[in-house]
UniProtKB/TrEMBL annotation:
Keyword Ubl conjugation among record annotations: no
PROSITE patterns named in the record: ZN2_CY6_FUNGAL_2 (PS50048)
Annotated spans, Disordered: 121-157
Keyword annotations: Nucleus
Protein species of origin: Clohesyomyces aquaticus
Classification lineage: Eukaryota, Fungi, Dikarya, Ascomycota, Pezizomycotina
Residue ranges of domain Zn(2)-C6 fungal-type in the record: 2-32
InterPro entries noted in UniProt: Fun_TF, Zn2-C6_fun-type_DNA-bd_sf, Zn2Cys6_DnaBD
Protein name per Swiss-Prot or TrEMBL: Zn(2)-C6 fungal-type domain-containing protein
Cellular localization per UniProt: Nucleus
Length: 550
């Protein structure tokens, strides 16, 4: 049962006593309601055969905003909420008073899931209004930095649901968030896309699509809040505003085929993975427990698979509009990481993508490694995991890609070890990000194949000897993944591949120097890019390494 604070904010609660994880992190009082019993009734409702029913999405969020209910649950919160009210000395960038949106007080900016009540509440609590003469501390024509914005009042400009966010944007904060998305966030999706569809085409479509624009602003704000002092409440507000139009669209047979809708869904799904601070654990890891990226790995956003399946042939065809292909492969990679972290077969249907070794451009060669990794995940976590024939087929494909790929995939600089210890990450530099990501995906697939080799004896002395051989190969692959990630900073999504590999097989490293280097990779990646969340992964690895024994 969730605690009072998590329930009133409609957050998932881990239910820990005496304080749940969220209350512990924010250093707040944590109280649980006494369970209530309901008297059973013998009355049975019945409906006629002609009773009309309203279709509902797979997940529904119920919000009770009546005064009585809020007063009952918020009696212990109202006294602390006032101290977080926006300061009255800051005006929303000199907007006319009629255009200013007054935000209600919130208990903690890091838990801003009162945003839906903020946008839709019957009578939200009103903070102190700024005086008519107050003005922005940044001046009327100076765009504030993310750090400056975080120091001012939480500012989200309200608009009617579904109203298009037309260019030019009216507010400096939104302009800053959009620029940050293009320059620093879109590469999450465009890592093997030379045309950069999510940085270019998606942004252009967002000009007339409020769902997509709000998704972009939400993700940009969330990434900023995880890497700077930017107010996390802003991301929550755009996130909830996006859902006002996204959820109804998922029930629209026409709208569900829109590419912009799927793009928004994919963007929000990444945001939700970033939101996870304390991911749960499964105990069926490769050699022990591994963390799941995202507190709900199947996705609070149920729309990705629904939309893909609604127009699967359009999105997955090997030929077709390049924008549609970019959307499909972004969704594919998200399902891929979920498969890896939950160690379950691929949920999204894998279509007959190009898996040949025929001559093609570098982008296609890199994309082939993504499809190959999906095949390997299905083998490792599916019903074929004991098939020696299938294993050898996949290993042959993995080796063939490395031997027959274009020469452009060769690194232009390679240094295996700086001091000869064999414990440093190699320095491997590539020309283009497609070359970097192709190397990363192929290497990660090799890690999974080596670990899930069905020919390895399960018992006896041979098992122990085989395990040593496997561990050595895995360690070499992980060092390669980390080395490639560190050597190519402009292709920073390569760090995510390395971090996932560390989460999966990092416990196989036995020397403390290696372990500290892996921990540094995890922490540095999250600190700089806000993803992936590593707190639980790091703790589990430290437990596996015996760091907490003393």
């Amino acid at each position: 049962m969730p605690c009072n604070r998590c329930r009133t904010r409609h957050y998932r609660c881990d239910g820990k006593r005496p304080r749940c994880g969220r209350c512990e992190q924010s250093n707040k009082d944590c109280a649980y309601e006494t369970g209530r019993r309901f008297r059973r009734s013998s009355v049975q409702d019945s409906f006629g055969n002609d009773q009309p029913w309203v279709s509902l999405p797979p997940q529904v969020q119920f919000l009770d905003e009546s005064q009585d209910v809020r007063a009952y649950y918020d009696s212990n919160i109202s006294s602390t909420a006032q101290q977080f009210s926006p300061a009255g000395s800051y005006g929303p960038f000199n907007l006319p008073r009629a255009a200013q949106t007054t935000l209600p007080s919130i208990t903690s900016p890091t838990e801003g899931l009162t945003v839906l009540s903020l946008l839709n509440s019957e009578s939200p609590t009103q903070p102190q209004q700024p005086t008519p003469t107050s003005s922005t501390p940044y001046g009327p024509h100076v765009a504030p930095s993310p750090t400056q914005l975080s120091g001012s009042s939480t500012l989200v400009h309200q608009q009617p649901p579904g109203a298009p966010v037309l260019w030019p944007l009216e507010h400096e904060q939104e302009a800053m968030l959009l620029r940050h998305y293009v320059d620093n966030v879109a590469l999450f999706f465009d890592m093997v896309d030379d045309e950069r569809h999510f940085a270019n085409h998606v942004v252009q479509r967002a000009k007339k699509n409020s769902t997509l624009m709000n998704a972009i602003l939400a993700l940009s704000a969330r990434q900023l809040s995880r890497t700077t002092e930017f107010d996390p409440y802003v991301a929550d507000a755009y996130y909830q505003r996006c859902f006002q139009t996204l959820i109804p669209a998922l029930n629209d047979n026409v709208a569900i085929n829109e590419e912009s809708l799927l793009a928004a869904t994919i963007i929000l799904r990444l945001l939700e993975e970033m939101n996870s601070k304390g991911p749960p654990t499964i105990t069926t890891g490769l050699t022990g427990p591994v963390s799941i990226v995202g507190s709900d790995p199947q996705g609070h956003l149920f729309g990705t698979q629904a939309i893909i399946r609604a127009a699967e042939q359009q999105y997955a065809a090997t030929s077709g509009p390049s924008f549609r292909q970019a959307i499909y492969w972004s969704a594919f990679r998200q399902e891929l990481w979920i498969s890896l972290m939950t160690q379950r077969p691929f949920s999204l249907h894998i279509f007959p993508a190009d898996r040949s070794l025929d001559p093609a451009n570098d982008q296609i060669w890199a994309t082939r490694t993504i499809a190959h990794l999906g095949d390997v995940c299905n083998f490792a976590f599916g019903e074929e995991r004991h098939s020696i024939a299938r294993y050898r087929q996949l290993m042959d494909e993995n080796t063939a890609w490395r031997s027959r790929r274009p020469e452009s995939f060769d690194p232009f600089f390679y240094r295996h070890d700086r001091d000869g210890s064999g414990r440093n990450f190699p320095d491997i530099r590539f020309h283009e990000k497609t070359h970097v990501m192709g190397k990363q995906y192929n290497t990660l697939a090799h890690v999974l194949l080596v670990v899930h080799d069905p020919t390895i004896p399960q018992l006896g002395p041979s098992h122990k000897q085989s395990r040593r051989v496997v561990d050595k190969m895995v360690q070499e692959d992980v060092r390669t993944l980390c080395g490639v990630a560190n050597s190519n900073p402009n292709a920073w999504p390569a760090k995510f591949v390395a971090c996932f590999a560390i989460a999966l097989v990092g416990d196989r490293f036995t020397h403390q120097q290696d372990q500290e280097a892996l921990c540094h990779m995890l922490m540095q990646t999250e600190a700089v890019h806000g993803f992936p969340p590593i707190s639980t992964t790091k703790h589990q690895l430290e437990e596996a390494w015996g760091w907490h024994v003393n």
